[in-house]
Design a protein that fits this description.
This protein has helices spanning 8-22, 27-34, 67-78, 97-104, 117-129, 167-171; strands spanning 56-59, 62-64, 87-91, 109-114, 136-140, 153-158, 173-185, 188-197, 200-209. It has 221 residues and is of the alpha/beta class. The strands form two sheets. It has a seven-stranded mixed sheet. Strands 1-2 form a two-stranded antiparallel sheet. The protein is globular, with a radius of gyration of 17 Å. Its main location: cytoplasm. It catalyses: [protein]-L-isoaspartate + S-adenosyl-L-methionine = [protein]-L-isoaspartate alpha-methyl ester + S-adenosyl-L-homocysteine.
Length: 221
């Protein structure tokens, strides 16, 4: 490490990566997160906390997830064959940090939907500052509906918690695809992995979670 090139933020990011490695995160995701300047995605007053293992408020009742949550969800999405993950839909852009990590992985097509216009615009500013906006397909709309016009998706990642899996998202998942999402089950949240096979869906409960609610839409046809 060349000390003359490292700022305080870079030191903090380096410590975050070391911590995530100790927590069991693999090299592919570590390298992606090491390349993204997380402090560009939080409010200036909170930037000194950007690399701490904690969620941070974004305003409008939204949060940026703690680094381990982002890393864990990203690993679950990639699975054991990351090369198959070519077209990904993210529901809940928020500040754009999870979007940036997906982009840093070099996945060919990343679509991200955000319901709140101010967050959608802010996320675009953050991604522009990080030099990643040109690679992202950003949509302001109802995440419950997904993006049927560009489906199917190899991966769908939901960063807010519905009470049940949105039907439209299940329908837009490709055979062999993976969906990672938190579900609110009577006040307790759990992170789930949904895998779509030719025979149906395989559901795996991964761990407890804590996300803001997914708002909008309906599963009613």
């Amino acid at each position: 490490m060349q000390h003359g090139r490292w700022t305080g933020f870079e030191n903090r990011r380096d410590r975050m990566i070391d911590r995530l490695a100790r927590m069991g995160i693999g090299m592919t995701v570590l390298q992606a997160m090491a390349s993204v300047q997380r402090h560009l995605f939080v409010e200036e007053a909170l930037r000194t906390r950007a690399y701490d293992e904690m969620s941070l408020p974004l305003g409008l009742g939204q949060t940026i997830s703690q680094p381990y949550t982002v890393a864990c969800m990203t690993e679950l999405l990639l699975g054991s064959q990351p090369r198959n993950m070519r077209k990904v839909l993210e529901i809940g852009t928020g500040c754009g940090y999870q979007t940036a990590v997906l982009l840093a992985l070099g996945l060919p097509e990343i679509y991200s939907v955000e319901r709140l216009r101010p967050l959608h615009e802010r996320a675009k500013q953050h991604l522009r500052a990080a030099g990643l906006l040109a690679k992202a397909r950003m949509v302001c709309g109802d995440g419950y509906l997904g993006l049927p016009e560009v489906a199917p998706f190899d991966g769908i990642l939901v960063t807010a918690a519905p009470s049940k899996i949105p039907l439209a998202l299940l329908q837009q998942l490709a055979v062999g695809g993976r969906m990672v999402l938190p579900l609110d089950e009577g006040g307790r949240q759990y992170l789930w992995l949904i895998e779509k096979t030719a025979q149906g869906y395989r559901e795996t409960c991964v761990q407890e979670a804590n996300f803001v609610p997914l708002v909008g839409g309906s599963d009613t046809p």
